[in-house]
Amino acid sequence: MRLAPIEVTLLEAAPAGEPEPIAAIAARTDAPAVTLRGAAHRLADEGLCTVTTETTTTLALTDEGRRYLDEGLPEHRLATAAAALSAPSVPEAAAAAELADAELQIALANAARKQLASIDGGVVTADDPDPDADPEVAALAAVADGDADAVDAAVRDRLLERSLVTADEATELHVALTDAGVTALMEGVEATDAVGQLTPELLQSGRWADVAFAPYNVTADPPARPTGRQHVLRATAERVKDVLIGMGFAEMTGPHADADFWINDCLFMPQDHPARTHWDRFALDLPPAETVPAALLERVAAAHTGGVGTDGEGYHTPFDPDVTRAMALRGHTTSLSMRYLSGAAVGPIEPPARYFSVEKVYRNDTLDATHLLEFFQIEGWVLADALSVRDLMGTFERFYAAFGITDVRFKPHYNPYTEPSFELFGRHPVTDELIEIGNSGLFRPEVLEPLGVEGDVMAWGLALERLAMLTSGTEDIRDLHGTLADLAVLRSAEVPY
Predict the structure, then answer these.
(1) To which H or E segment does residue 11 belong?
(2) Which superfamily is assigned to 232-492 in CATH?
(3) d(CA 81, CA 84)
(4) Total-model pTM
(5) 383-440 pLDDT tens trace
(6) In the chain, what are the domain boundaries?
């Protein structure tokens, strides 16, 4: 058998048993590793060796991680300081812990997650924590000592989310002879200076007529060349739009930064609702909105304070105009529905009417397998006479059937702005678990009457990322979106048509 010299070198150096890294063979033979990799793939095409890959992950502390290892995690410093004081307020505990504003938010969130401290009435209650018992502290120390293998996977993921460590992946080829390779060596191989590529120098010099060219393996599979493609979330969003437009819906658009009036007050969300605090929303340091319609504002305020109709109760709490004009990033695209239903967006809308949007929203949620700080919501509503729960469920069944999802479950739920209200659940194709995919219901009179809407409105907010999880089989939403996205998933995921 005649082979290229580098192929002969690799064939003679590769083990017949346990695969060996290319780097080790390169060190032993003084052959360039990159050249050996090419030779390995050619020999594998000939069936003379096997080529496997092994990926190793190297963890390293970020500057923030190194500082926290030295100074202590913010949540530990906060809990320690609070435990040493008598019923301190949050600012007092933060000052004692010497926490900057940015660190305070980190400390509060993680102290609550780890149950190191609690806040009641602005007072911090905490027990003196034991940092040595915290697996995150132990993991930071292990990474610093170069013992990343000792770090639990869940703890590693948490440190990555907190940007306290970085992860670098390296892929190494491993080579071993096949039985055919061993036989070829026993029968003898001959190194040949066969030329693998016709070059300009060979043509100009005329040497091409005297050299031996290596034969082409026309049966070998070409190397995979990943190409750019539309992101699976964008493809899913476009498919959603196609489906809804095909169902007779028109698309809504509107601002990402909006007044709380449109985001919450029009939805009959009480101004003291926990979801309207800085813990859940992203408030903006912007001047108050000046374009809130005065007459509509008066009707919405009246609904909040006294309700609507003869049986209306309202919330019996003051309605603060400063709160309603405050600017924030929208936590849902229902703010668009309020603009359209009120006539502020495109003028009065007469029934029957159907509108939708697929746009980004922002919530101060805890990042996990099903939650992101930024995500896409499929907003929709139908305005018509005599709508019922049956109409709502039938719309969902038709919509999700377009994506091959036929097992949609409904669970009664409470919303301040819809009655009746339902959460939607879909069955994950891999885990077989039911995951929440949306929220829905019929708008209450407290929402519709101030807007001047005559008729019934059924509405919903569905999660685009959750839909993509059901169609692609992805178990973690972070594989689809964000800095930890799985490129293999993004390259292979398909949107049902």
Answers:
(1) helix 5-13
(2) Bira Bifunctional Protein; Domain 2 (3.30.930.10)
(3) 5
(4) 0.61
(5) 999 999 999 999 999 999 999 999 999 999 999 999 999 999 999 999 999 999 999 9
(6) 1-73+134-225, 232-492
